Amino acid sequence: MARGSSRSHSRALRRRATVRAVAALLLCGAAVPSCASTSEHRPDRAKSASARQSALEAAAAKAAAKKKAAQARLLPGMPPPLDPHDLYAADRPGKLARAVKDFPSRVYVPNTLSDTVSVIDPKKFKVVRTIQVGHQPQHVVPSWDLKTLWVNNDLGNTLTPIDPASGRVGRPVDVHDPYNLYFTPDGKYAVVMASMDRALVFRNAHTMKVVKSVPVDCYGVNHTDFSPDGRYFIVSCEFSGELLKVDTAKKKVVAKQRLPIAGAMPQDVKISPNGKTWYIADMVANGVWVLNGDTFGKPRLLPTGKGTHGLYVSRDSRSMYISNRGEGTISVLSFKTGKLVRRWRLPGGGSPDMGGVSSDGKVLWLSGRYNAEVYAIDTRNGRLRARIPVGGGPHGLAVYPQPGRYSLGHTGIFR
């Protein structure tokens, strides 16, 4: 090839190479930004990853600090809530504690006029045993450690222990005026609602020996529930229409108020799942009082039905069942809206009083106080599944076992 021709060919090849290089760079810049040098972008990615990691660590530290602060506020010795937004998170269907998982399922009914406890097999809807106890049994109460059922023989001035595993009845324990019985969240003390003695009596939770008796200047102390941190509890005074606020650790009444209606007759007390709202049933006001327990300010009344008496939380923490003893109905309240969403009427009437929800959450069991019977009510539709004859004056029946880690007393308040 001639020399001139060779030079021309070389220039042409260089031009084509240059064009291809420029095109490649343009394509890389326009369509694939990552074609740029790795060394230019790696520091930015590293900084971004570092920032994300720092944010995650800060959030985790904040959550840990919040949890630690919340636990520091708890009554010393009490188990922390499983879920700070749901006090009843441990009460889901089937969540039986190891201590009770092998107990036979039974419904224990104290008959105040017969001085007996009727024992019902909930699968057969039938009384399978009748236990003779002391004079005027009012409530059957699960102990804090879940291992014993205490029958409150109010006028007999005794507690009768029942072993729910074997059904064995123990020797009665002398306890004066045990109308109702609760346990502090730390499991240290039983709190006897000595209604006629006008006292809250703190006793050793196991031996029932008196630790401190706290006189009250209201009449008819009967029901209570505890704050989320266990630091205080609110008590209803049935015969004087008053509420008490009690410091748990100090064992001292720190506040009192009279309900704003003549002749008020407060009964059962229950706190909402989020721990912010308290509900107090009132037989004369025919509804529930809605109260902020922390401020202990003036409550407002939510009408529910005649002779409002018992309060029970559903297994999913969404609803509360309210027994209206004076008209034979059960109202259902939505915790989310704070409003009534349903009302179930017992066919043929009745006097629904105290009770509890089955372990699977499908049946609400209530005593028929003036009808010598017990009602088994389907919680899905309010249908009466059974009406079971028992002794005279059935009152605070206990469904047992139920889900939960420990008992706060009454007919079964579990956390």
Brief account:
This protein is an alpha+beta fold and 415 residues long. 16% of the residues lie in helices and 37% in strands. It has helices at 3-31, 38-73, and strands at 106-111, 116-121, 126-132, 137-142, 149-153, 158-162, 173-174, 180-183, 189-194, 199-204, 210-215, 221-226, 232-237, 242-247, 252-258, 266-271, 278-282, 287-291, 300-303, 308-313, 319-324, 329-334, 340-345, 352-357, 363-368, 373-378, 384-389, 398-400.
Q: What features would you describe in this structure?
A:
The radius of gyration is 32 Å and the shape is globular. The chain contains two helices and 28 strands. The protein starts with a helix and ends in a 15-residue tail after the last strand. 16% of the residues lie in helices and 37% in strands. The protein has a four-stranded antiparallel beta sheet, with no helix packed on it. Strands 4-5-6-7 form a four-stranded antiparallel beta sheet, with no helix packed on it. A hairpin with a 4-residue loop joins strand 2 and strand 3. The protein is an alpha+beta fold.
Please render the helix and strand layout as text.
Elements: H1 3-31, H2 38-73, E1 106-111, E2 116-121, E3 126-132, E4 137-142, E5 149-153, E6 158-162, E7 173-174, E8 180-183, E9 189-194, E10 199-204, E11 210-215, E12 221-226, E13 232-237, E14 242-247, E15 252-258, E16 266-271, E17 278-282, E18 287-291, E19 300-303, E20 308-313, E21 319-324, E22 329-334, E23 340-345, E24 352-357, E25 363-368, E26 373-378, E27 384-389, E28 398-400
